[in-house]
Amino acid sequence: MAHSYGAPVIGWMESIKNFNREDCEEYFRTYYAPNNAVVAIVGDFNTDYALELVKQYLGGLKSGPPPPEVPRYEPEQRAASACSLSAKLSTSISCAGITWATKTARTCTLSKSSNSC
């Protein structure tokens, strides 16, 4: 599937029981490298200072080899399967919304107010 709905974040217990130290180290070297990471900074901050800190603390990390391509396939979609949330946030931001796919075939809409965006 294109997204692993229902799969535990750290893996299935059967897989975890079969890990050894070498497997864990190899996994870490493969996937926990700067070229496979994202830094997200949010809020009211000084951009130049934030970039300076990122370079100071992360700039010396060496990239690893590209991780292997993850095979993806999308099963046939037979019914609507999404949820949406929308809300009027403030006078300066008229509306914000998000929609995400769900595991079960259903459609739902959640609104913060009766005046949906």
Descriptive notes:
It is built from three helices and three strands. By secondary structure, the chain is an alpha+beta fold. Strand 1 and strand 2 form a beta hairpin.
State the gist of this model.
The protein has 117 residues and is α+β, with helices and mostly antiparallel strands. The chain has three helices and three strands, in the order H-H-H-E-E-E. A hairpin with an 8-residue loop joins strand 1 (82-87) and strand 2 (96-101).
Helix content: 10-25%
Gyration radius (Cα, Å) is: 21 Å
Q: Number of helix segments?
A: 3
Give start-end ranges of low-pLDDT stretches.
none
Counted beta strands: 3
Mean pLDDT: 77
Query: The biggest beta sheet, please?
Result: 3 strands, mixed
How many structural domains does the protein architecture include?
2
Label the structural class: alpha+beta
Order of helices and strands: HHHEEE
Amount of beta strand: 5-15%
What is the global morphology? flat
Give the distance, in angstroms, between the N- and C-terminal Cα atoms.
32 Å
Strand order of the largest sheet: 2-1-3
